[in-house]
Structure prediction request, 319 residues.
Amino acid sequence: MTREELLSRYADGERDFGYSDLEGKDLSGANLFAANLFGANLVGVDLSGAYLDWINLSGADLTRANLTGATLYKANLFCAKLVSVKLVGADLAMAILSGTILARANLSGANIRGANLTGAVLTGMIIDEVYLTAARKPVWV
Amino acid sequence: MTREELLTRYAAGERDFSQADLRGMNLAGVNLAWVDLTGVNLAWVDLTGASLFRATLTGAILVRTRLDDVTLRWANLSGANLEGANLNRADLTGANLAQAKLTAANLSGSILIGANLSGASLVKANLSGATLAFANLAFAILTGAILAGANLTRTSLMSANFTDAILTNAILPKGFKP
Prediction:
């Protein structure tokens, strides 16, 4: 699926893009509010500045994805793979981050206020100035 | 079938290879997402680093198959035979491994988040450093399995058998008494 195909289908009212293959695609600045990308392959995608509030990314593979400055308010990232992901300045307020792998992720300046991190794997994370207020911390950190 | 024939047919859009004979083939690093390999014999096949995203491998024979660093995200491996298979650092997020035979399989550092391992046999399997958060291990047999440093946060362990299993430094679900 190309960027154009995804965005035109979204504009036509389609929301279900579960398990789709978007590896390496440029989706910067895209509006995917409340879209369903359950289990999708999003390895290396550029989602910088994208509008992703209420998106369902549970079980998706976001390895090396760039989400710099993206808004993910109330996004569902349950069991997503976020290895080496760039979430610099991203808004993850109230997002579900349970069971995610955040190894080597960069969350500098990100807002994870009220996010749920139960069971997350946080190896080698860069979390400079992360706004952590009221975040439910993982059980063993 | 040769490796070239398989990859040509896959590139042409064919996904059903359930009648194919792939024994002993070298398929390291190939992309076979959404492929149907129901009941196929993949014994001794080299699939190191390959992508089998959403593949159907129900009842497939993967005895001693080399699957290190493989992507098996959302794959269906229910009832598959993976005895002695090498699955080190494999990504099995959301995979269905119900009733699968994983006796003496190497799964160190593998990701099994949300995977269904209900009724699976993991006797003497090596799961050291594996992530099993939110996985379902109900009725699984883990006799003599190595789970050192494994992450079992919110893992369902109802009636799972942990006799002689090594759980050093493992993160266990709340209230779990081995």
